[in-house]
Amino acid sequence: MTIQVIIAGFKGRMGSTALNMVKEDKNLALAALLDPFATETEIDGVPVFTSKEELIGFSADVWVDFTTPAFAYEHTKFALENGFAPVVGTTGFTPEEIEELIALSAEKKIGGLIAPNFAIGAILLMQFAAQAAKYFPNLEIIELHHDKKKDAPSGTAIKTAELISQVRARQQQGLADEEELIAGARGADFDGMRIHSVRLPGLVAHQEVIFGAQGEGLTIRHDSYDRSSFMGGVNLGIKEVVKREHLVYGLEQLL
Amino acid sequence: MTIQVIIAGFKGRMGSTALNMVKEDKNLALAALLDPFATETEIDGVPVFTSKEELIGFSADVWVDFTTPAFAYEHTKFALENGFAPVVGTTGFTPEEIEELIALSAEKKIGGLIAPNFAIGAILLMQFAAQAAKYFPNLEIIELHHDKKKDAPSGTAIKTAELISQVRARQQQGLADEEELIAGARGADFDGMRIHSVRLPGLVAHQEVIFGAQGEGLTIRHDSYDRSSFMGGVNLGIKEVVKREHLVYGLEQLL
Amino acid sequence: MTIQVIIAGFKGRMGSTALNMVKEDKNLALAALLDPFATETEIDGVPVFTSKEELIGFSADVWVDFTTPAFAYEHTKFALENGFAPVVGTTGFTPEEIEELIALSAEKKIGGLIAPNFAIGAILLMQFAAQAAKYFPNLEIIELHHDKKKDAPSGTAIKTAELISQVRARQQQGLADEEELIAGARGADFDGMRIHSVRLPGLVAHQEVIFGAQGEGLTIRHDSYDRSSFMGGVNLGIKEVVKREHLVYGLEQLL
Amino acid sequence: MTIQVIIAGFKGRMGSTALNMVKEDKNLALAALLDPFATETEIDGVPVFTSKEELIGFSADVWVDFTTPAFAYEHTKFALENGFAPVVGTTGFTPEEIEELIALSAEKKIGGLIAPNFAIGAILLMQFAAQAAKYFPNLEIIELHHDKKKDAPSGTAIKTAELISQVRARQQQGLADEEELIAGARGADFDGMRIHSVRLPGLVAHQEVIFGAQGEGLTIRHDSYDRSSFMGGVNLGIKEVVKREHLVYGLEQLL
User: Which residues belong to any copy of the Dihydrodipicolinate reductase C-terminal domain (chains A, B, C, D) (predicted)?
Assistant: First the structure.
């Protein structure tokens, strides 16, 4: 059975990448496209709309949303109320909004996904790292990004460290009286874990978690080369939400 | 509460490493030592025996066994019958023997572990790889060992590939009409996965599973530097079997 | 002093990337553009030509050529005869042609470069690998490419192995009686060295040379992410040829 | 022709490892052993001495010295004066002493080597890194050691950075206004290069230099697993000093 997909925000970078992804998957079909900036009325036979109200009563299974924070909450609510399972990659929801949308989805018995990060590999890395930390409490994180990135450590590195913190007791790593001959050598200290941020031209977005124990080591590394890497997660989201009866927050809830 | 441990085969390489590990853990205590080749009657106040019968009626919690295939089955049965939870690193059990010992343990309500591999890192690698393969069906395995190793691929690489095969459909990787300019370039084909075996002096035992998907990659690597790496698994086994009510096969059952 | 550059083949993918590179370097200036497919007569004030004859008597320092094998020889000869130092990335020269062009350049006392590969990193990898092999004769090569690549091993891997062969005696690696449980596990055998070819979606072009010796290892890895990586080599070529008095073959001659 | 070798300090850890290395190389032969703590008068037919004076007039080619700083200078001078080419792994020479010994060796026309580091791999890494930095000025250093190491960064990392500083102009790496959300994330700043120090159980001594440029990356990594890794350098030193006519400081002078 083909899943009928609406794409809201199809004129943006993520939305247009999602459009191509849906087209190339035989199990998915484009039902409609929505974007306030659209000037076409149809594309390859698919109807194009500029406001969500035009989709009331429309028949489709999933509502993929890559719009902006200003629209995302209203869109997600609209989708649930009109029988479309939402898959939302827009950020900016408040915790209250998410709670409300989950409640609404449960009432309507419609699946859904709001995900700040659609890279399956990054999420697997975080899950595996948290799992491994139970047995290997000594670990360090190295994240490597292009040299135009402003913040260090990266958001993903901090999130990884947070997840690990929840499963291991705080512990000091390295020698108690270790000494930095040059400040910063031992990296950022997050709850006893060290995080090192590398910035170089040519790099894209990469992260390693290195675990060490007596006589052995375990390393988990994720490499993200371009935006297309997110589409695997969107695809998975579309196929999972149609089987569910309430909305979840975070792609990890579907893995 | 301190766990009282008997070590059978304490004169061997693994047994003596286990002896040191138990000594260094404050939560464990040596209750007795057993080895047919022992000439001492006690070591540091711990009684030494040369045959298992001398331990009938003895009080202890766990029976660690690093003997030989010829002894292991009888030892494990003896341990269960005498109230010691067995942690067995000896290989050579038949499937029937394992089944029988699991049944006996359930009857006696005693935990136990028989494990062909105690390296926690290697087992985590296999588990993570099987989990990741559900989302990333394209993968290759590179295993690297010292150049005195005879077989290629390694047993761990084959076991990893087997576990992955159970969760993904067979699929051809690489281009359909790809061509080896020199035979063997694309490695060993196991159910569509490619395995590459590197042999070099200096190396010990290392394995990488590399996953590739659109725009991203995920790599899981385990490095084993020396035999001491197994002791984390033995330690974990001792602490887990005392909480269980039947024997399991494979350290992964306790992770 | 600004180096004045002509770009032949500026309509092609490599040529247009070169055009942007020249524009962005304050030490370089575009003097003229040449392409039989050009329809413009000037771009941003730079004159555009469709046949090389129009450039007779023109004043410039360097002739960058990314045309096709059919044109490259005539273009390079033309450049030398008209006082432009050629930097040529087109392939397909015969050894005789290269010899003739080197002789012509020496006669004219004009520098020049014909290079089948402009990726500085790949060339450094090959040079370092050949140097290290003198001290570490045990090595294996792993090359990793996207899964649309047809040939295995890659041309760069074979070239690397050839360069290493010139500095080390053939030697069998691994155990004399090693055994492949699955054919191909030990990779392609090139003069005793093993080459392993990994093909996965998401990957671009990567190569590792791993050396092993008693108690230590040395690994050299090159990652190529996109075509822009070649421009560092073109830029270097432009700046070096103006200092030289004859043409060389291979970017390594200028490193 | 077999090279006749004296080993001074053969009772120590390095000296005894050197003794075994010489024994196993058919091109080398043990001529004599020296150690103030020796109680034997011969080992396997090789004469054993306790003071250097006993070796006046003795016939041998090379004097390997793994004694202590207190003896090393006198030993090296003695070796040169008595016709033995010294290969010295002891540290603690003053610059004046080294200069004096070089002058003495030149006068006597005897080769020699004083080396603070005999790991060929580590030296190749430093040489390659300095060479690559000419073309790729953006780089970061990651060094990884066991968690009993006190100082960070490691001496080798600092030495590598120093060598690189000599070939590249100081340059700021990363974004001008980059921000550390947690102090230390961007590592130690050495002349604009960033150095990151990882400390984990299980690790031995490892170092990576990662270069990044537009669209490409180059990584050079050295892994040192145990002390035996130094013996390749001692072996090389022995075979090279007999061909030379003056002493050099640093194994890199012989590569």
Answer: 121-255
| A174 has a chain D CB within 8 A of its CB | yes
C229 contacts D136 by C-beta, under 8 angstroms: no
- Per DSSP, the residues of B106-127 read HHHT--EEE-S---HHHHHHHH
As to burial, measured by CB atoms within 10 angstroms (0-12 exposed, 13-18 middle, 19+ buried), residue B230 is: buried
Subunits next to A (3 or more Cβ pairs <8 Å) are B, C, D
Q: What's the Cα-to-Cα distance from D118 to each of B16, B109, B161, D122, D238, rounded to whole Å? A: 34, 59, 41, 8, 12
DSSP per-residue codes, C62-117: EEEE---HHHHHHHHHHHHHTTPEEEE------HHHHHHHHHHHHHHT--EEE-S-
**Residue D189: both structure tokens together:** 């700043």
What string of pLDDT tens digits covers the 255 residues of chain A? 799 999 999 999 899 999 999 999 999 999 999 999 999 999 999 999 999 999 999 999 999 999 988 899 999 999 999 999 999 998 789 999 999 999 999 999 999 999 988 989 999 999 999 999 999 999 999 999 999 999 999 999 999 999 999 999 778 888 889 999 999 999 999 999 999 999 999 999 999 999 999 999 999 999 998 878 889 999 999 999 999 999 999 999 998
Q: Work out the minimum CA distance from C235 to partner chain B, whole angstroms.
A: 28
Q: How many CA atoms lie within 13 A of D26 on its CB side?
A: 0
Minimum Cα–Cα distance from B204: chain D residue: D225
Please tell me which of the candidates D128, D216, D218 has its beta carbon nearest to residue C225.
Answer: D216
Start and end residues for every CATH 3.40.50.720 domain found in chain A: 3-114+228-254
CB distance from B204 to chain A under 8 Å?
Answer: no
Strands D216-224 and D205-213: antiparallel
Omega of the bond prior to B153 within 30 degrees of 0, cis? Answer: yes
Residue C197 buriedness (CB in 10 A; 0-12 / 13-18 / 19+) = buried
Interface test with D, best of C123, C138, C216, C254 (most D CBs within 10 A): C216
Note whether A181 contacts D142, CB cutoff 8 Å: no
State the catalytic residues of C: 145, 149
Q: What are D97's two structure tokens?
A: 């002493």
Please give the CATH number for the structural domain made up of B120-224. 3.30.360.10
Interface of C with B in 176-195 (CB under 8 A): 177-190, 194-195
Catalytic residue, chosen from D52, D145, D222, D246, is D145
Q: Which residues contact C239 (CB under 8 A, 6 or more apart)?
A: C3, C27
d(CA C100, CA C113): 13
Q: Per the CB < 8 Å rule, is D152 touching A214?
A: no
Asked whether the beta carbons of residue C232 and residue D218 sit closer than 8 angstroms, the reply is no
Choosing from D149, D159, D206, D239, the catalytic residue is: D149
- What SS3 class is residue D139? strand
A152, A184, A214 member nearest D178 (Cβ) = A152
CB pair distance less than 8 Å for A229 and C202:
yes
Domain A3-114+228-254 adopts which CATH fold?
Rossmann fold (3.40.50)
Q: Where in chain B is the domain with CATH 3.30.360.10?
A: 120-224
